[in-house]
Amino acid sequence: MLFKLAFVNVRDRWRDYLVLFSGLIISAAIFYMFEAIATNKALIQANISFKLAAIVFQFGSVLLGIITLVYIVYANSFLMTMREHDYGLFMMLGGKKSRLGFLIFTETLLIGLVSTGIGVLVGIGLTQGLSKLLMSQLGVQITKFSAVNITACLSTILFFAILFLMASLINQYKLLHRPVLKLLRGDSKADKPIKVTVWRYAEGVVGIGFLAVGYWAMAKLEVLQIMTIPIALVTIVLGTYFLFNAFFQLLIQGLKKINMAFKGLNGFTLGQLNFRIRDYTKMLSVVSILFALALGAITVGMGYHRIIPMMAKSNTAYDLAVYKQTPQATKLVNRLDLQKKQAYRQKIKGSTIYFVADDFQRQPFEVATLHKEKVSNRTLSLNQLKHSERGQQQLLTLQMNYFSLRQVKFVSPQVFQAVQAKSSKLVLVQTTSLAKNAENLNRIAENQVQAIKDPQITVQSLGGAYPIYQAANVLFGGLEFVGFFLGMAFLTMLASCLMFKILSGAQLDKRRYHMLNRLGTRQSLIRKSIRREIGALFLLPGILGVVHVLFGLQMFVPLMGDPYINLATPFTIFIGLYLIYYLVTVFIYEKLVVPTVRMQF
């Protein structure tokens, strides 16, 4: 009978349970996505850049575990808030505590296991879809990558099973040791507002001090090396918590003193925030850290996406040198989105390479220069090229046997004819984009390796920007992929955490908004109050997260030069996605708490 009553109650409140299930499924899916990479030893061993990111995964796994634990605590609290009143009624109707204890134990564990199982399946799908999307968009080739990872499946199921087993035992204990009256009225309690004291100001100063130490540690990566990460992780987490605990309360008290607090439902909104400060301080601290990690990861990923072509193009103005004019190579060159194609006759004798001067008169050679993180090409006349050490050096690097060459000579056709060496033609191609033409450039390069028939010659041995681009992708492409992948994972996790925390209080808020409705408050004012309240909860961690990112990018100066270039693009993309989560949260919250019928008197 108890199980039947419980089922009927769940069916009647399916919207609330849908919020619970969706939150738990997302939590398990994100945990699996991260573990799918973190536990894939073959992937890390097969890709150099993943070896460099191994330390990130180690600290990330710990951080994600802590965040997931917090998430499950809130989910369990939400479940108990929904069910306490029902269990109290069951006891009043004669239900035995032992049976009710077994019921809540089974219900909590079943909800956890079912949501975890679905979450793992969703995580596999998300991992597969996101990885394919990123690899296709970024042009990154990752070997040994598989969305289905048995180790990740087992670790996710085991981790969540342990958490839900503990939650089931805690829920059972609470039920058996709580009086019936408290169960019936357990959802009517309200937190007492925190008083503003001297300690609040001291707490703010301590928080700023911790943040300053964390920002300093990130800027001193070359000095502190591996110790930078644990120092920054501990100090920034503590600093964020103390700053929110002090600043949020002081901000609310300050806003209450201005005239805006007395307009519309602003006073009600500030009161809502003031009474929830204890719970939201912890959650906003977690969200701001996740916000910084997600935005930072996407920003660094886009930074690597920007600097890989730049690294390649800074060495030469030409994408690839073609030495053997095979029919296949000619066909593939014609498929390229060409910006320029130049051909020079050449002969190699000893350590000297001879070129026909007339070829450079008709087709001036271009030299690549890097200045302030920007690559530009400069056209040199023959006379300028003869006196340009940089120009001649870049011309030499376009040869396969670059290291054996020492001198460049530009001669007349007659002198060139007299040189006792085999004549060949050097064809240089310049495309509109390395990334867009990478597939055809790779085919041309492989065709050249096959045509040359020298076991010592590989794609990386050829001249041009593409071989450098390919090598840079092997070295940094994995980091670029990891940046985008983790950024999306952390974004989903942080937004889900905040959304779930806000929606978990919907049951308590429903009565307050119904009371406003009975007092004759317009629904437009109620909705505006909700949007402002939720907007503040999304905005505050977002602002601090952006500050964390701006200081945290100092860690990547040694690897990326200037990581602050083109920040508008990743920030715009990320904030756009964050805004979507805000709008979805507002929509669901309004559906749960705003009365559908206006009270008539």
TrEMBL record:
Entry-linked Pfam families: FtsX (PF02687)
Transmembrane regions listed in the UniProt entry: 17-34, 54-79, 100-126, 146-170, 198-218, 224-248, 283-304, 481-503, 534-556, 568-589
Protein's UniProt name: ABC transporter permease
Record flagged with keyword Transmembrane helix: yes
Keywords, sorted A to Z: Cell membrane, Membrane, Transmembrane, Transmembrane helix, Transport
PANTHER family associated with the record: ABC TRANSPORTER PERMEASE, ABC TRANSPORTER PERMEASE-RELATED-RELATED
Membrane protein topology class: Multi-pass membrane protein
Domain ABC3 transporter permease C-terminal: 60-172
Localization (cell): Cell membrane
InterPro entries: ABC-4_Integral_Memb_Prot, ABC3_permease_C, ABC_permease_BceB-typ
Organism this protein belongs to: Pediococcus inopinatus
Family membership: Belongs to the ABC-4 integral membrane protein family.
